[in-house]
Amino acid sequence: MPADVAIIMGSQSDWPTMRFAAEILDELGVSHEARIVSAHRTPDRMVEFAKSAKQAGFKVIIAGAGGAAHLPGMTASMTPLPVLGVPVQSKALSGEDSLLSIVQMPAGIPVGTLAIGNAGATNAGLMAAAILALQDEALAARLDAWREGRTASVAEKPEDTET
Ligand code: RP5
């Protein structure tokens, strides 16, 4: 069985961020596969991956990159699958460069852009799961239960804690 979600990233250095997408997908029981696909270092690999992703059985692509982050938009231009972009926090500009590179797609080729960094990767995983849950009732129930668990974990009153 092919994985439902492809998690692609521009570099090994993106994995500490992108693993948050993998972790939430694991928690929700969604199959996924992670690959390094760089728009500028391995452009042929990117083209081959993007053009064959649907045929390979993937249903959603999560693409993370940092700096001049072309990977999500370039991938989206070559596949009909939904592409969720995660701006990885860069050293020079703290990920604002990544965010603007990914979010400002001209009309016609959408990339669903999430927040910079770990929160964005987690939310990309959750959004991928929500897309898949539209046609998977068991997954929809697991997603509902996960959200209910988050709600239940919030105390009504704050407690004194050590600082
Ligand atoms: C981008 O350049 C990658 O997505 C990564 O976020 C950034 C830096 O890559 P490395 O120099 O750490 O490989 O292509």
Overall mean confidence score, pLDDT: 97
Tally of structural domains: 1
The small molecules bound here are: 5-O-phosphono-beta-D-ribofuranose
The largest β sheet comes out as:
5 strands, parallel
As a percent range, the share of strand residues is 15-25%
Weakly predicted, low-confidence segments:
none
Q: Can you count the helices?
A: 6
Helix and strand pattern: EHEHEHEHEHH
The CATH topology is: Rossmann fold
Span from first to last CA?
49 Å
Can you walk through the features of this model?
The chain is of the alpha/beta class. It has one domain: Rossmann fold (3-Layer(aba) Sandwich), CATH 3.40.50. The chain contains six helices and five strands; from the N terminus they run E-H-E-H-E-H-E-H-E-H-H. A five-stranded parallel sheet has the order 2-1-3-4-5, sandwiched between helices. Strand 3, helix 3 (about 70-75) and strand 4 (about 85-90) form a beta-alpha-beta unit. Helix 1 runs parallel beside helix 5 (about 120-135), helix 2 (about 45-50) crosses helix 3 (about 70-75) and helix 5 (about 120-135) crosses helix 6 (about 135-150). The longest helix has 16 residues, at about 120-135. The protein is globular and about 55 Å long. Pathway: Purine metabolism; IMP biosynthesis via de novo pathway; 5-amino-1-(5-phospho-D-ribosyl)imidazole-4-carboxylate from 5-amino-1-(5-phospho-D-ribosyl)imidazole (N5-CAIR route): step 2/2.
